[in-house]
UniProtKB/TrEMBL annotation:
Transmembrane segments: 7-24
Matches recorded under CDD domains: AdoMet_MTases (cd02440)
Protein's name in the database: Class I SAM-dependent methyltransferase
Pfam families per record: Methyltransf_31
InterPro entries listed in its UniProt record: Methyltranfer_dom, SAM-dependent_MTases_sf
Record organism: Salicibibacter cibi
Gene3D superfamilies listed in its UniProt record: Vaccinia Virus protein VP39
């Protein structure tokens, strides 16, 4: 009987934590803790949607571009982005956690990457003062931000006209945002849907800032 009770507890506890974290993040900024960095550094074995190479290919990122990785964490995607854009491009990683950024900077140093920069700051506060870019990525991060409207507006303003924001969501993430939710929020600030890749449970939504919009 005790074994059954223990098994039930082991099943219920993660589910409780999942939904408690999801609910709390609606009003508080609760990013993935640093001690779980090993988890976010791994490519998801169950889906290709949030793998670095997949996102880079889908986003049509090529040498010479300037790209910003919002909510970069330990640099799982930022490092491959810097390698992809090459010496004539630049990759910038933005995160609110200094420990995550230190981890990412260590990786960049080990690879001797000169075209990469990391900035500590909150998305949506209007204080990042980032240079215009052609591409931006937001991978399983949108749901962690209490003011998603302000965050998307800041990203929109940072992109050059014709620039693309790739929002990637995977249902295993506690902060998962549906395609409908992402698109509704994105349309409010001016984005247009360019392409949808994946399915309802794991997808990338490519959002374009219209050409001619110089905001």
């Amino acid at each position: 009987m005790k074994k059954i009770a223990s098994l039930i507890f082991m099943v219920i506890l993660p589910v409780f934590i999942f939904y408690a974290w999801r609910y709390a993040s609606r009003s508080h900024e609760i990013p993935c803790p640093f001690w779980l960095r090993w988890f976010v550094e791994l490519d998801n074995p169950f889906t290709k949607a949030n793998r670095a190479n997949t996102i880079i290919q889908q986003s049509n990122i090529h040498p010479g571009m300037h790209v910003i990785d919002f909510g970069c964490g330990p640099g799982r995607l930022t490092i491959p982005l810097a390698e992809r854009v090459g010496s004539h491009g630049k990759a910038i990683g933005v995160d609110i956690q200094s420990e995550m950024l230190q981890r990412a900077e260590s990786k960049a140093l080990n690879k001797d990457l000169k075209n990469i920069e990391f900035i500590q700051g909150k998305i949506g506060k209007g204080k990042l003062q980032l240079a215009p870019c052609e591409r931006a990525v937001l991978v399983t991060v949108l749901g962690e931000i209490p003011d998603r409207d302000a965050a998307l507006k800041e990203i929109y303003d940072t992109l050059k006209p014709g620039g693309i924001l790739t929002v990637t969501e995977v249902i295993f993430d506690p902060h998962f945002q549906s395609r409908k939710t992402v698109l509704t929020l994105a349309n409010k600030v001016g984005f247009r849907e360019k392409e949808f890749v994946g399915n309802r449970a794991a997808f990338s939504l490519l959002l374009e800032k219209p050409v001619g919009d110089d905001r």
